């Protein structure tokens, strides 16, 4: 169990390597990935991270990257997590997955595999991913995983290049037998900095996407989630209030933005951040156990203090259920406790 002075860790995202077989538009490391990968955590180092995770509750360990399947020890590390009773998930671009590899992934007992589809057609996805044939490769990988019996989740980064395709993405996700579609609303920091300002969704369009998600969730056909979109919970609460339900209800995990609250990110070289989009250094697992960083970091402590939010987020009646995206606030102002810039809501007027 986690120490009494801190919340349990629910999700640990591990950037297992910066190596990748694609050349995505939003990646800063295309030219330096091979050199940078020399700093990837070793098998023994990440074993120790997993050992420390086991003292923080029962977090899901998400193997991401880069392309995590380019490591040669992912099966060994998945087995170590299993021995510690830690559930695992795999985030991949899918293009390396064939029938043999899909079988190995199933035997490694990942709870779910997410595959990125950043467009509903080859032209859109391949342009974003930087490699012709990436869309076909991802679909083939998903088919292999489904044939092997693996639960699949589609991840889609939503920006101006594909926001008009969300209906088609939803239909495609259903047609290929995936269990879930998670829409990642683009965050203009970290990898998102490499995408031009013209790709950023304006706040009113962002709000329309959240309304769209709520409309489709009512059908219950697949799991549908807006990620990096904490004011989804405010929009949902407003709808509930209009239906006679008390507003301001907390989300299922406390609030919308979970970075530093129940989520942490470990970079390929062991740096600890509140999430993959908030580049505020909290320590290194090469210097201290993850559990100590999770417990003692002043950055994490500040993120967990809803009363420390600034600007309209600090005045908002939905701050305990939303919290605003701390990474977007950081990208605009340099202060991760500032107001969420992609939110249209005005606490003073209630609209």
Could you give a short account of the major beta sheet?
Answer: 10 strands, mixed
- Low-pLDDT stretches are 247-253
Globally, the shape reads: globular
Please count the helical segments: 13
Determine the structural class based on helices, strands and strand pairing.
Answer: alpha/beta
**Helical residues, percent:** 25-40%
Radius of gyration using CA atoms only: 20 Å
Tell how many strands the DSSP assignment holds.
10
- Helix-strand pattern: EHHEHEHEHHEHEHEHEEEHHHH
* Distance linking N and C termini: 41 Å
Q: Strand order, biggest sheet?
A: 7-6-5-4-3-2-1-8-9-10
Portion in beta strands: 5-15%
Brief descriptors of the model:
about 15% strand, alpha/beta, 10-stranded mixed sheet, about 350 residues, globular, 10 strands, 13 helices
Write the layout of secondary structure elements.
Elements: E1 11-15, H1 33-36, H2 43-53, E2 60-64, H3 74-83, E3 88-92, H4 99-107, E4 112-116, H5 122-129, H6 134-147, E5 152-158, H7 166-175, E6 180-185, H8 203-217, E7 223-227, H9 232-242, E8 263-266, E9 271-273, E10 283-284, H10 290-296, H11 298-303, H12 311-315, H13 326-333
Parallel strand pairs: 1-2, 1-8, 2-3, 3-4, 4-5, 5-6, 6-7
Antiparallel strand pairs: 8-9, 9-10
Helix pairs in contact: 2-3, 4-6
């Amino acid at each position: 169990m986690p120490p009494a002075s801190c919340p349990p860790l629910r999700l640990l995202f591990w950037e297992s390597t910066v190596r990748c077989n694609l050349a995505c538009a939003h990646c800063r490391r295309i030219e330096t990935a091979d050199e940078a990968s020399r700093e990837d955590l070793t098998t023994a180092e990440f074993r120790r991270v997993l050992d420390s995770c086991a003292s923080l509750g029962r977090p899901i360990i998400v193997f991401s990257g880069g392309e995590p399947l380019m490591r040669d020890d992912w099966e060994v590390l998945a087995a170590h997590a299993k021995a510690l009773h830690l559930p695992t998930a795999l985030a991949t671009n899918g293009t390396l997955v064939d029938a043999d590899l899909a079988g190995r992934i199933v035997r490694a007992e990942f709870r779910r595999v997410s595959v990125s589809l950043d467009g509903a057609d080859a032209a859109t996805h391949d342009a974003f991913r930087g490699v012709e044939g990436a869309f076909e490769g991802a679909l083939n990988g998903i088919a292999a995983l489904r044939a092997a019996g693996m639960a699949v989740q589609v991840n889609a980064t939503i920006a101006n290049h594909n926001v008009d395709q969300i209906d088609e993405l939803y239909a495609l996700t259903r047609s290929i037998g995936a269990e879930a579609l998670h829409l990642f609303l683009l965050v203009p920091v970290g990898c998102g900095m490499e995408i031009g300002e013209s790709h950023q969704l304006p706040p009113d369009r962002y709000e329309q996407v959240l309304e769209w998600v709520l409309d489709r969730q009512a059908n219950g056909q697949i799991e549908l989630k807006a990620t990096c979109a904490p004011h989804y919970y405010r929009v949902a609460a407003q709808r509930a209030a209009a239906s006679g339900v008390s507003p301001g209800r907390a989300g299922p995990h406390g609030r919308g933005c979970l970075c530093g609250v129940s989520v942490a990110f470990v970079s390929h070289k062991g740096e600890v951040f509140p999430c993959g989009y908030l580049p505020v250094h909290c320590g290194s697992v090469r210097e201290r156990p993850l559990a100590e960083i999770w417990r003692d970091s002043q950055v994490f402590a500040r993120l967990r203090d809803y009363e420390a939010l600034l600007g309209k987020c600090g005045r908002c009646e939905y701050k305990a259920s939303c919290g605003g995206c701390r990474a977007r606030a950081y990208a605009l102002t340099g202060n991760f406790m500032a107001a969420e810039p992609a939110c249209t809501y005005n606490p003073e007027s209630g609209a």
